[in-house]
Design brief:
Two copies of one chain form a homodimer. The first copy, chain A, is of the alpha/beta class and 256 residues long. The first copy, chain A, is built from nine helices and ten strands. Chain A folds into two domains: 79 residues, Winged helix-like DNA-binding domain superfamily/Winged helix DNA-binding domain (Arc Repressor Mutant, subunit A); 109 residues, NAD(P)-binding Rossmann-like Domain (Rossmann fold, 3-Layer(aba) Sandwich), CATH 3.40.50. A seven-stranded mixed sheet of chain A has the order 6-7-5-4-8-9-10. Chain A binds a DNA duplex (30 and 30 nucleotides) through helix 4 and strand 2. Chains A, B: Homodimer.
Chain lengths: 256, 256
Amino acid sequence: MASQRGEGETTTTPLEPADRERARAIPEAAVARLAVYLRVLSGMADQGVTAVSSEELSQAAGVNAAKLRKDLSYIGSYGTRGVGYDVEVLVSHIERILGLTRNHSVAVVGIGNLGHALANYGGFPGRGFPVTALFDVDADLVGIPVGGIPVNHIDEITAVCREREVSIGVIATPPPAAQSVCDRLVSAGVQCILNFAPVVLQVPDNVEVRKVDLAVEMQILSFHVARRADEAVHNSSGGVSVGNNGLGVDGMVIRP
Amino acid sequence: MASQRGEGETTTTPLEPADRERARAIPEAAVARLAVYLRVLSGMADQGVTAVSSEELSQAAGVNAAKLRKDLSYIGSYGTRGVGYDVEVLVSHIERILGLTRNHSVAVVGIGNLGHALANYGGFPGRGFPVTALFDVDADLVGIPVGGIPVNHIDEITAVCREREVSIGVIATPPPAAQSVCDRLVSAGVQCILNFAPVVLQVPDNVEVRKVDLAVEMQILSFHVARRADEAVHNSSGGVSVGNNGLGVDGMVIRP
DNA sequence: CCGACTTTGTGCATGCGTTCACAAGCGGTA
DNA sequence: TACCGCTTGTGAACGCATGCACAAAGTCGG
C-alpha cells in the first residue's frame, strides 16, 4: 500500500506542488543520509565553501558518490552539470524537505542522568528543535530548572504538551515507565517519539517512533569483536578487510 | 572479498565448529534484532516464563513472526516444532553468538553531560560491558571519580586503554575533538567505536564504528512530521496509515 | 500405537535499496 | 558559434532483506 502516486492535483498548493509526491517516495535510509549531507554542507558553508561536487560531498559524508546523487535526486534536480552543487541552494532544499523550516518543540520525559544531558544540549544540535518542556515523576525535581527550563510533574504532561505544542517527545525514563509515558504522550497528541529506554514501545499507526538503544549498539559491536576474534583464530593469514556496509547511516572512508 | 566459505577445518576448535560460518552469514539487520530478542527473552526469564512461541516472541519484539524465525535460524535450530522455544536455551545461544560470554571493557571519552550520563549507567545496560576508563582534556576533571571510575587525562589514552584491555571506545566529545580522539583510540588498539559526536569519522577498515546521532534522529522525525502535515492538508480523507518499515530496529505493533 | 494438531524451519517470490554505467546538459574556449 | 571536457541525473541490473506458504517434525489425546 501507499505506493500509488496521486496525480491530477491542479489546485494551488500552499507547499510546493510536486515536492509532496517526492517526499513520500524518499526511502527512509535516504532521509537519514540527507540529514548527514545537511550537516556536512552546513559545515562547508561556515567555512566559506560555495560550491561542491558530488564526489567531494560524498567523501565528506562517507558514502558512495552515486548513492549521494541518487539521494539528492529524490528531492529534485538542483545541481549544475559540469559544475556541481551550490552549497546554499542544497542546504535550503534539504532543510525544506526535512521540514526544518518550522520549529519543532521538544519535550523530554525523565530527568535522570540522560535527561539532564539532553536538556542541557541547549537548543539541541542542529537548531530548530527547542526543548520547551521537561517532565519527571519525582516531586523533588518539579520546579527546578534544568538547562533553563523548569521541570513539570509528569501528570501535567497532557496539558503542558498541548499548550506548548510539543511535536516531539523524548523518553529518557527507566524501562518500566517508558510504555506508560509513551501512552501519555500519544494521548497528548504527540506524534513523534524518540525513545532512549530499552523497551519496545507499542503505539498506534499514526505515531512515529525512533529508537536509540545503547545496549543494542554495544551488543552489535560485541558481535563484531567476537566474529573478528574467531576469524583471527581460524585464519592463519592476518588480512583484515571488513567493510561496514549494510544498514545504518555510518560512514567509513579512508581519509585522503 | 570475504564471501568465500572456508571449509575443510577438522581441528578441534575452541569455539563451536559450524557457528563461525553461520556468524559471518548473519545479516547486520538481523544482528540488531537478535539483541532485541535477547532483551525480551531476558525479561521473560525474569518473570518465570520458560517457553515461548515465535508468535509470542515476535509480538513482544515488535516484528513479523516469520522474520523472527528466520533470524533465529541464522544461529541454528534450537526450537521444538509444535511447541516453541525454551527461553533459557535461546538466551544462552543468542548471548554466545553476540559474543556476550566474555566481558567487553568500555572506555568513555569526553566527560561532559553525556559522558557523565554514560559513566553513571553503571555497568551499562545489559551487563557485560563494564566501563573501566574515562578520559577528558579538562585537567580539572582528572582524578575525580565519575560513577566510581576516576577520570584520566586524554593524553594517557593509549597507555590506559592497552593496560585495561579496552575493546570498545565511546566518543562523547564535542564535534571538533571527535576525529582526533578516534585516531587516538584506534592507535591504542581499540577496534570498536560508538560515536555520539555529530561527525562522520574516518577510520581504517579494520575498525567498526556505530553512530548515535541525535540531530539525525530528530531530523528524521521532523521529516515525518512535515510529510504528515502536508498529507493532512492535501488529503481530505483523514485515513492515517504509516507503517514504520524500512531501516532500523524499531518495532511498532498494535498491542493485543 | 496412531492420528490430528501445532509450530518450527526454510525454499521461493516479491520488493526495496544500492551500484553501475552512460546519456544529457552545461560552462569554458577557440 | 561550435567543440570539448566535466559532472549531473537516471535507467537498469544486481543483491539483499522481507514476507509468504508449506513441508517437516514433534506433541498430545485417544
